[in-house]
Design a protein that fits this description.
With 473 residues, this protein is mainly α. Helix content is 60%, strand content 5%. β3 and β4 form a beta hairpin. α1 crosses α5 and α14 packs antiparallel against α17. It is globular. This is Glycosyltransferase RgtA/B/C/D-like domain-containing protein. Keywords: Membrane, Transmembrane, Transmembrane helix.
């Protein structure tokens, strides 16, 4: 197809989605770092920024992640200034590239008249939009993984090898997903050819060799410097790397299922599942390819994560959500009646949008970084900090919890190094609580509500913050 004709087909589909993400980035440009991005983006980036890349390794207490994303942010700050808007706009190349990669997949698996519908099922996912509104390495991981998939499908081994190298030094999860890319390639080859010879297997492994070498070199350097790889018991997340008990294994399996269905995705899974059963005797080659692309990362991540005490986040499954949306759209095209197709599509989209409004009781931890419901938090936090300063309440007297324990220097890139201590209801005169904080136990919340008094309260949307004081204050 001529390039001009190709672009004429692509632009009406990709430009609205790109415009949505550019607008979202502009809207959130002043929002601070949130949730795990405080560590993985801000603290890592500022370390490389301050040290001017003079060392490859971050301090021991925050070590455990490869350097790629932090170095990227630090380089961007050196070029354009260390500000929150710059940080958010540094994500745009990956967001826009991600749109193009999804379009390439949709173009392969969907008829031209149904591509935009499929992309809506992808880009209206609450967790994807929430991550797109933050400065996070998961968006980069998602982009790189989709580049790998398109390179596999287009038989472009050089592009595949390049994307795999970046995955090898991006995050621990991207390193795990290297194996998912390989097994996806293996199964796709078997699907197309019916067999895999040793010579074919060797040829398939060639694009993975550079990434393997880079990964081994990084792990070797890391072990030589720190004396460990993966995690350290003394690191910030060392407690989350222990093996689970049999009960914990079952709980993790349940949490994985919950994460996959949560925030409106249940409708998309039901659509895909019912249609897969309905058309089970008539799967096309494309249907089987999409199933491989969906199930391999789902299985790979599940097999690894289910064994550990690490909290399992919604964002871990971004790749799965993308492929789920494409699979559902692909299967919908086989329904004979257009009205039924459109009706199911609309219901699925409404279900996804509703995910931003799914609120659980206080006793149930919610993935606040996984829907746009978290957006009011930043403004409320600034208002509460201003109130504390106006009332001359020292921050060291105010207990709080994650993600409100980092200093404004880390969350907002300013010069304020003050921080709140971790909550201790037995010693601290004030407690700052928000329903965004998942670390308060049911007993602590009940004790605050029954025995402490609220001295200041703020609410916007689904987010609220309360400053509690002891009755004798």
């Amino acid at each position: 197809m001529p390039q001009a004709s190709y672009l004429r087909q692509a632009l009406p589909v990709v430009l609205p989605i790109m415009g949505l993400l550019v607008g979202l980035t502009w809207y959130v440009k002043d929002n601070g770092f949130f949730w795990d991005s405080i560590l993985l983006a801000s603290k890592y980036g500022q370390w490389y920024y301050i040290t001017r890349f003079s060392t490859l390794f971050v301090p021991h207490e925050i070590a455990g992640y490869p350097p790629l994303f932090g170095m990227y942010l630090a380089a961007g700050w050196h070029l354009f200034g260390k500000t929150l808007p710059v940080s958010h706009f540094l994500m745009l190349p990956f967001l826009l590239g991600f749109v193009w990669q999804v379009y390439l997949l949709a173009r392969r698996f969907l008829p031209s008249s149904w591509i935009f519908a499929g992309m809506l099922l992808v880009f209206l996912d609450p967790t994807l939009l929430a991550q797109a509104a933050q400065v996070v390495p998961d968006i980069v991981l998602l982009f790189l993984y989709l580049v790998c998939l398109n390179a596999l499908l287009q038989h472009r081994p050089v592009l595949l090898a390049l994307a795999l190298v970046f995955m090898a030094i991006h995050t621990p999860r991207s390193q795990i997903l290297l194996s998912a890319v390989f097994f996806s390639q293996l199964l796709l080859f078997w699907l197309e050819n019916g067999r895999i010879s040793f010579s074919a297997l060797g040829k398939l492994m060639v694009p993975f060799l550079p990434a393997g070498v880079v990964l081994l070199v990084w792990l070797g350097f890391h072990y030589n410097h720190f004396g460990w790889v993966g995690f350290s018991r003394s690191s910030d997340w060392g407690q989350y790397a222990a093996f689970v008990t049999p009960k914990g294994f079952l709980q993790n399996a349940g949490i994985i299922l919950w994460r996959l269905l949560d925030f409106g995705r249940v409708a998309v899974w039901l659509t895909a599942g019912i249609l897969l059963w309905q058309f089970r005797q008539h799967y096309t080659l494309q249907t089987k390819q999409l199933l491989i692309l969906l199930l391999v990362p789902l299985f790979t991540l599940s097999v690894v994560l289910v064994w550990f005490t690490n909290p399992i986040g919604h964002r871990y499954w971004l790749v799965v959500y993308v492929l789920l949306g494409l699979l559902a759209a692909h299967l919908l095209q086989f329904l004979p009646r257009l009205k039924i197709r459109v009706g199911i599509l609309v219901l699925s989209l409404i279900s996804l949008v509703s995910g931003h409004f799914w609120v659980y009781p206080e006793g149930i931890a919610k993935g606040w970084d996984a829907t746009l419901a978290h957006l009011p938090y930043f403004n409320l936090r600034h208002q509460m900090l201003s109130y504390l300063d106006q009332k001359q309440i020292p921050w060291q007297e105010v207990g709080s919890d994650f993600p409100n324990l980092a200093s404004p220097a880390d969350t907002d890139l300013n010069q304020d190094q003050r921080r709140f201590p971790l909550k201790d209801l037995s010693t601290q005169p004030y407690i700052l609580y928000s329903n965004v904080f998942n670390g308060f136990t049911d007993q602590e919340l009940a004790y605050l509500q029954q025995h402490w008094r609220i001295v200041h309260e703020l609410k916007k949307g689904q987010v609220y913050m309360k400053l509690y004081a002891r009755p004798d204050r």
